[in-house]
Each structure stands twice: as structure tokens, then as C-alpha cells.
User: What shape does this take?
Amino acid sequence: MKSLLYVLLLSFSLPSFSQTYHPLVKEGSVWSTLHRIFMWDFWTDYTKFEGDSILDGKHYLKVWKTTDEYQSGWEYSELIREDTNGNVYINWGIGDDLIYSFGASIGDTLFLHGSYEYYILDSIGTIELLNGEMRSIYFLSHEAGWCQETWIEGIGSNYGVLNGGFCGMTGDNPELLCFTEDEVLKYKNPSWNTCYYWTGTPELELNRNILISPNPTTGSISIRSSCFQKNPILIEITDPSGKLIYRTEMIIPDNEIILPEHIMNGLYFIKIVPRHSVPVVKGLILTR
Assistant: This one.
């Protein structure tokens, strides 16, 4: 699944490798990715590339992962490499698997993971990172329309650095949380407050200091905030396809929403719109 909220400065032009290109595969970067395999299970892992390896005459870096919040206890995972055309490959020991093609042009068809399913590169723009740096951002769509995906040059997919071409895969709902380069935090998912979450997190902490709990929920949610006190807000809950499931207006704090009985177990989007202003706050809720 993709993040819902991005702050973008769009400039629809093709990136040029003659300009400064930021490779994905290099030492000194750390990614954190949120995983949700079961509706009530949250956990985060960190990924880094470190240590050279040669396989079949090709140069790779080793992929290391840890689920430790303090980034200790790293374990070897696989190999990764990037060629001069901006193609990124993972190797689990049975050959290269293409997961990114940063040298692609708008309209190109990309077969990722050796699959018969493909992706279309719809457009390329630019995004400003937290440190003011500008990077190219790629917008892709799955050929069957199952989902969309975004890549940031040197950072990777909104599903996590190792999950380029994630659409169509099952069993996980990953989401990139943070990216650090040379110990500088350059990207943070605006839908989440921190770079690390683990099972048992009792509240969904949205930006603008809005707390939604319990999450996961079994039928009702409480919304609290210090930002929109005594001001009406519009609440909308939609399923992953965008279908409106529930809509109401309320004043917070000290309010509870009883979700309709027809809501099935699953993952839903919640949107909060202050009626007195323009800003929109978005997040995720789970039901079980």
C-alpha cells in the first residue's frame, strides 16, 4: 500500500543522468519500513547496504536488516547492485531480480521481479527532501490497475527500499517510514510520527497531534486533538479502493465514533477535514 500524503513540487521533465544522479545502492544509508502482515501486527525493520561482494563477476553490496529499534543485531539478508543505467537488482542466490529502473522514460513498460505483470511509468517530477535537497520522483501504475507506486531517486519505493514493484504481492502491507543518508534524516513519511513502530502501539498518532484509538479497533474509535478543539470536523472513512464507508461531522475532543456493523475486518483510510480551514489529515485504521 502506498502512503497517502506527499508534499511535492512537481516539474514534469525527464531526469538526466548527465546531471547529479543519486544512486540507491551505496553505503551510508538506512531505511525503516513498517510492516503489517496481520491486521493487528505492526513491526518495523531497518535496512542498510554494507560490504562488497562479487558474484558471477558482478559487484554487489550486502543487504543487512534488523528489527531492533536501536539498530543493533544486524543480520545478512541478500545481495543488491545497481548498474550505470539506474537499474537495481536483488540477488537471493538464484540470479538477479530487477526491482527498480531509474533510467526509464515516461510511458515505458517495466517488468519487475521477472513477472509477466508490468508497470507503466506515468510521470516523473521532483520532490524536496527534509534537508532542502531536490530529487526525482517517479509515479508508476500497475498494468491491471491494482495499485500505484512511487519511487524517489536514491531512496526507493513508498513501500520500502526492497519492495520496488510490490503491487500484486500478498501477505504484507509495507510502507516506507524514514530514510537517513550519512546520518542525516532526509525523508520521513508524513502519515506517521516516528521512524519505528511495533505491535501493541495503542494509538494512531497522526500529524497535527491527532490521536485515534484503539487501533486496531473492534468497532469504535476515539478521536482526540489539541488542534481542532471546539471546531467541527468532517470524518470520512474509505476502503483501499476509495469507496466511502462512513461519513460524519463532529466536534473534538471527547468524541467516539461507533463504526457501522457492515464494516468488515481489514484496512481503511480515515480522513479528517477541519470545517473552518483547508488542511486535510489522513491516516490508516485497522479493524478486526
Remarks:
- The first strand starts at residue 29 and ends at 35.
- The chain is about 0% helix and 45% strand.
